[in-house]
Write a structure and sequence with these properties.
three-stranded antiparallel beta sheet
Length: 83
Amino acid sequence: GIPCPRHRMPAYDANTGFVTNSYAEFNPAQLSSAGRAVFSLLKTLRLAHVTEPDKEGVVTMSNLTLINFCLYVLGPCREDVLC
């Protein structure tokens, strides 16, 4: 499956006071066939922020939580506005 880091809560930016997406890094080629299918679906339907692969094929994708999805769709915001 797609990696799910232990700490997947949004990141806090002390400079702006906003919470932003948190991310996981992985190589899609190393996923199982089901994981690659889910990754492809998420990327194609733009349900998560996915960066282009680096030289080693590693991508960065926003974590798959409801809070991170809201931040992805609505953009960074203050924590009291998000919750």
